[in-house]
């Protein structure tokens, strides 16, 4: 989509925002995961009815994912369904039964490096699964949809070190199969909006962290190894920078996006600032009270050198205002980790 067309859609969406009622019956795919379970808890706290849908993919232990949902399962307004997002018949039945007026589609195979080893599976689960979810939404009354895209769609941006990533930037050069699937999902979503009128927000998420973080992600992996006195693998020279987004700030943004009819819109969800990998290690040292032993490794194929979100559009359209400083977020993550060994 051109920048002009994107701006037109965003402008038209602004005219509809005040008339849009917040969805009260919400489907959350990937509900047992790190972001999904945090989102489920927020929606239930706001009094909404939520169906969580999750395949419990063995990427990390099912027992940990189920612990994420202990609080939600105690609520009479929550129902957990196990299933694959590629199962069109199952999803059609769920939409018919619950008449969802909102969908947050988070289910996907995650991770840049694993996608290099399993590109066909990533394409199948991520692109086909997103198509099936959107088809079910379109066939059952047009629920408002937010789906998880990724900052990885921006690719390698080393030539523009002083510019944050904007939604209107070129995203035609992803450097991993995972990133390519997320770009493909954005295109599929635009087709469903154009053909069926589905209100869809593509949420480009920048390096989420916080309580319940997946064990394969850097902050969790570093913290656990540091607590055991083991070396931590740092790829490259530690100067790579990321826009680290605290999960509670992210979830606040996702709910705000769900609660507005924005037509088809792409929004960045980041903290709007950059932190180097070595700075994250120092923050973990402060929070854990231990010194890190660094095992320097070559830079990995598929990894980008930097991410940095321009959040102007999200702030303008939905009032997105991430407020958690990295040290605070790391401290809250460490407190959770120590309570959940």
Instruction: Provide mean pLDDT, rounded.
Output: 92
Record the strand order, biggest sheet: 3-2-1-4-5-6-11
Total number of beta strands: 13
β-strand percent reads 15-25%
CATH architecture: 3-Layer(aba) Sandwich
Helix content range? 40-55%
Distinct helical segment count: 13
- CATH C-level category: Alpha Beta
* Distance between the first and last residues' Cα: 46 Å
Shape: globular
Describe this entry's structure for a reader.
This protein is of the alpha/beta class and 341 residues long. The chain has one domain: Rossmann fold (3-Layer(aba) Sandwich), CATH 3.40.50.720. 44% of the residues lie in helices and 16% in strands. It contains 13 helices and 13 strands. The chain has a seven-stranded parallel sheet, sandwiched between helices. Strand 5, helix 8 and strand 6 form a beta-alpha-beta unit. Helix 5 packs parallel to helix 7. The longest helix has 21 residues. The termini are far apart. The N terminus is likely disordered.
């Amino acid at each position: 989509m051109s920048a002009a067309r994107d701006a037109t859609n965003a402008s038209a969406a602004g005219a509809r925002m005040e008339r849009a009622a917040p969805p009260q019956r919400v489907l959350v795919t990937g509900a047992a995961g790190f972001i999904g379970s945090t989102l489920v808890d927020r929606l239930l706290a706001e009094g909404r009815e939520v169906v969580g849908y999750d395949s419990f993919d063995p990427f990390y232990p099912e027992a940990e994912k189920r612990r994420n949902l202990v609080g939600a399962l105690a609520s009479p307004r929550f129902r957990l369904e196990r299933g694959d997002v590629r199962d069109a018949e199952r999803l059609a039945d769920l939409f018919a039964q619950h008449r969802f007026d909102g969908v947050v589609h988070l289910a996907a195979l995650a991770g840049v490096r694993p996608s290099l080893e399993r590109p066909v599976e990533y394409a199948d689960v991520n692109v086909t699964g997103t198509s099936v979810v959107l088809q079910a939404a379109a066939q059952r009354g047009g629920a408002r949809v937010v789906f998880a895209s990724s900052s990885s769609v921006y690719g390698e941006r080393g030539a523009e070190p002083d510019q944050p990533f904007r939604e209107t930037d070129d995203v035609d050069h992803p450097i991993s199969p995972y990133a390519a699937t997320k770009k493909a999902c954005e295109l599929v979503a635009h087709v469903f909006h154009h053909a069926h009128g589905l209100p869809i927000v593509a949420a480009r998420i920048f390096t989420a962290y916080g309580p319940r973080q997946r064990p394969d992600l850097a902050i969790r992996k570093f913290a656990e190894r540091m607590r055991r006195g083991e070396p931590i693998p740092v790829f490259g020279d530690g100067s790579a920078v990321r826009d680290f987004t605290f999960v509670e700030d992210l979830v606040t943004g996702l709910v705000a996006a769900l609660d507005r009819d924005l037509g088809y819109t792409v929004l960045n969800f980041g903290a709007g600032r950059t932190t180097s990998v070595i700075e994250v290690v120092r923050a973990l040292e402060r929070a854990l009270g231990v010194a890190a032993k660094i095992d320097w490794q070559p830079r990995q194929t598929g990894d980008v050198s930097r991410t940095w979100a321009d959040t102007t559009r999200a702030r303008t359209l939905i009032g997105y205002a991430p407020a958690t400083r990295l040290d605070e977020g790391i401290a809250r993550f460490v407190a959770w980790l120590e309570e959940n060994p």
